[in-house]
Amino acid sequence: MTIAVRESVVERPAGTAIIDCDIHNAFPSETSLHPYLSERWRQHADQFGARTYHGLSYPLASEHAARTDAWPPSGLKPGSDLGFMREQLLDRWGIEYGVLLPLLGSGKQLNLEWGGAMSRAINDWQVAEWLDPEPRFRSSIAVTYEAPDLAVEEIRRRANDRRFVQIQFEARTHEPLGRRKYWPIYEAACEYDLPVGMHFGAQGGWPITGVGHPSFYIEYHTGQSASFQDQVISLVTEGVFERFPNLKFVLIEGGFGWLPPLMWRLDRAYGKLKAEVPHLKRLPSEYIREHFWITTQPIEEPGSPAAFQRLLDDLGMNDRLMFSTDYPHWDFDAPDTAIPAGVPADVRRSIMAENARSLYRF
C-alpha cells in the first residue's frame, strides 16, 4: 500500500494538535556514523561491520520498507533527508512534536561491545543532525539492550538531555523482557523517569512463530503482534511492575486489538494459578492498564465505527493510546484518516496528542 503525498498543508480542526510517536530516521550513507565513532570502531566498521541474526525483514518491492513517495529528490534514502522529512511530514501535517525511533541495529548486535559503540554514536548523530537542527523532534535512546551494563551506561549519559524521551527496545529480544537480565535497564528507566519504548522488529535468534520460520512476508508482518503479546505476559508474570512500580512501557507498532482478550485470558489463568506467582498482588489486567501505553499504527480497523468503539471500550485505555504514522514506511497512517469515524472528539484529541504530551512531558 502506498500513501500519496498531499499537495498542500493540511488544515487541522481548531484545537486539534498532532504528536507523532513513531518516526524513523535513517543514515544517509554507510559511513554516516564514522564522525561519531572512535578510530578503533571506525576501523571495525570498515573491516568487519555489523554481526546480527540475518533474515529478510521487508519485501524487496518496498525497499527500506518505504512508501514510494518517501524517496527524497536529493537521492538519499527514505528517512535520511531532514529537509524532505520536514516538508513531507512535519510541515504538511502540522505536527507539533515527532518522536524518532532509529531502527539502525545497535540493540541486536552479537558483538556487544560494537553494539555499545554503535549506540553511543547513533545518539550523538541524532543530537547533531536531527535534534539540534529541528526543535520539533524528540528521540529515543538507542541502547544495546542485550548488554544491560552498556545500556545503563548510555542511559546515564543521555538522560539529562530531555529531548530523549524514552529508552528504545525492539520486540524480538533474545530473552523474554521480564527476565532479571533486563532489570538494571528498568531500574535506570525509573531513576530518570524515562519510559521504555518497545518497537516492532529485530530477530533475537528465534523464528517469529512458535512452530518455525514462516514462508511469506505477510506472515512475518502480521505475526509480529504475537511477540508483543509474549513480552507483555512476561513483564507482568515475572513481577517487573511490583519491583518497579513506576516503570512505564510503550508498545510501538504492534497493534492493540489483541490486548483485551489477552487481559481476559491472563486474568482467568491468574484466578486458577496465582499460587505459582505469589509476587503478583493484583490482577494482570490491572498492571497492564497502569503500566502500558500503545501507539496506534498499525491500527486495527473493524468493519464499522461501532465495532471500533467496542474495541476501545473493551480495552479501557483511552488515556494510553497515542497517535503514530510510522513514517516513512509503506504502511504509513495519515493523521486525517487513522482514527475511524465516530470516535468522540475528546477521545480523538487525547489519542492524537494529549496522551503523548502527558507521558513524554511535552
Task: State the shape.
Answer: globular
Secondary structural class? alpha/beta
Assign the CATH class. Alpha Beta
User: Counting H and I runs of at least 4 residues, what is the number of helices?
Assistant: 11
Q: Which blocks of ≥5 consecutive residues have pLDDT under 50?
A: 1-11
Radius of gyration: 20 Å
Per the CATH scheme, the topology name is: TIM Barrel
Question: What is the CATH architecture assignment?
Answer: Alpha-Beta Barrel
Q: How confident overall, as mean pLDDT?
A: 92
How would you name the oligomeric state of the polypeptide chains in this document?
single chain
Distance between the termini: 32 Å
Largest sheet: 8 strands, parallel
Listing every helix as H and every strand as E from the N terminus to the C terminus, the arrangement reads EHHEHEHEHEHHEHHEHEH
* Domains (count): 1
Could you state the CATH homologous superfamily?
A: Metal-dependent hydrolases
State the helicity in percent bands: 25-40%
Strand composition percent: 5-15%
Total count of strands: 8
Major beta sheet, strand line-up: 1-2-3-4-5-6-7-8
Task: Present the secondary structure layout.
Layout: E1 19-23, H1 39-47, H2 82-93, E2 97-100, H3 112-131, E3 137-142, H4 148-158, E4 164-170, H5 183-191, E5 196-199, H6 217-237, H7 240-243, E6 249-252, H8 259-273, H9 284-291, E7 292-295, H10 305-315, E8 321-322, H11 345-360
Helix pairs in contact: 3-4, 4-5
